[in-house]
Design goal:
CATH topology of the largest domain: Quinone Oxidoreductase, Chain A, domain 1
Helix content: 10-25%
Order of helices and strands: EEEHEEEHEEEHHEHEHEEHEHEHEHE
CATH architecture of the largest domain: Alpha-Beta Complex
Radius of gyration: 20 Å
CATH superfamily of the largest domain: Medium-chain alcohol dehydrogenases, catalytic domain
CATH class of the largest domain: Alpha Beta
Distance between the termini: 16 Å
Number of strands: 17
Largest sheet: 7 strands, mixed
Shape: globular
């Protein structure tokens, strides 16, 4: 099979991925063999390529926003509930599934037992600890793949598997979705202000574009912050009530903010524009250092919190809500062999929406 493999980290401008021929993997016990249809290209892939995230496996096939067809079942896989959902029917040949960043956890530690599997100390990650989706075939654990809603396009679904899922967890941790978030279109839980709540999103790429659609569906006003006008225009096109640069004054205080851009100073900027009781969620796996925070900026029960990975519940509910909204993915398509180019375009902000590799047809 064809695969884009990383032997050693290096500058993305030097095209460190190499097109190689590898044997089709065999699914082990509890695993499924997947024919990859499409795979999203993520900034986490970029951090792995350039060594900002230290290598966990070398060589490795990156890619962790995988849309695929089940073409093989390992021993016992047919008796495992996909996505950890006990009510879901088992996987069958021909099913279309998604594979995200979180490959598997130990399912026994204190974090897993308390519903916080995203914090598992022994978690393994797709495209970092195990080969990912920049290849024609891959294997995954049956309990950690997600059946896609009927009719969902492969290219459009790919960004949901990381940008969407991580964005959804950010929305959960700031109260946009989840048990206490109210119904779509509500102004919020009982006792909340009548005005729509205000969400600022810093760094208007793939995750932000997907988050914006869910937040607006949930009745929030979105404020988009981006360096260039094209990304600000995208925010407005998606329904943001305001879009500007971080140095611009929106004229309001935010009830919550999500920072996707890997720039620590934006966490401080978000805090300075945050209302009392608000939350700033840091949605990246990597960031430059956060500057000193003056106490008045965090006083008033303001909160800054990181967002790590996601749970299977996050993935299941994101796919459900994405079909209901429906979330529209803006996709910039590349063939598998141009993965280096896609990553360079991502680094240099030439991707408007989500970069996705079309791997095989189907």
């Amino acid at each position: 099979m064809r695969a884009m493999q990383l032997a050693a980290p290096g500058p993305v401008a030097e095209a460190p991925l190499r097109l190689v021929e590898l044997p089709v993997p065999e699914p082990g016990p509890g695993q499924v063999l997947l024919r990859v249809l499409a795979c999203g290209v993520c900034r986490t892939d970029l951090h792995i390529l350039e060594g900002e995230l230290p290598p966990h496996r070398s060589p490795v096939v990156p890619g962790h926003q995988i849309v695929a067809e089940v073409v093989g079942l390992g021993l016992g896989a047919q008796s495992i509930a996909p996505g950890g959902d006990p009510g879901a029917p088992p996987l069958a040949l021909g099913d279309r599934v998604g594979v995200p960043w979180l490959h598997q956890t130990d399912e026994t530690c204190r974090f897993c037992r308390s519903g916080r599997e995203n914090l598992c100390d022994h978690a393994r990650f797709t495209g970092w600890d195990v080969d990912g989706g920049f290849a024609e075939y891959t294997v995954a654990s049956a309990g950690w793949v997600y059946r896609l809603p009927a009719g969902m396009d492969a290219l459009a679904a790919a960004p949901l598997l990381c940008a969407g899922v991580i964005g959804y967890r950010c929305l959960r941790l700031i109260g946009v979705v989840g048990d206490d978030a109210g119904l779509p279109g509500d102004a919020g839980p009982a006792g909340a202000e009548a005005r729509p709540r205000r969400l600022a999103i810093y760094g208007f790429g793939s995750a932000a574009s997907l988050c914006t659609q869910v937040a607006i569906w949930r009745g929030w006003d979105v404020y988009g912050i981006a360096r260039d006008e094209e990304h600000r225009a995208m925010a407005r096109d998606l329904g943001a009530v305001w879009a500007g640069e971080s140095s611009d004054d929106p004229g309001v205080l935010y009830d919550a903010a999500i920072v996707f851009a890997p720039a620590g100073e934006l966490a401080v900027d978000a805090l300075r524009h945050l209302d009392k009781g608000g939350i700033v969620a840091l949605g990246g796996i990597y960031s430059s250092p956060i500057p000193a925070i003056e106490y008045p900026w965090i006083y008033g029960e303001r909160v800054v919190r990181s967002v790590a990975n996601c749970t299977r519940r996050d993935a299941r509910e994101l796919l459900r809500d994405a079909a209901l909204v429906p979330v529209v993915s803006r996709v910039q398509e590349y063939p598998l062999e141009r993965a280096n180019e896609a990553l360079l375009d991502l680094k240099e902000d030439r991707v408007h929406g989500s970069a996705v590799l079309r791997v095989t047809s189907g």
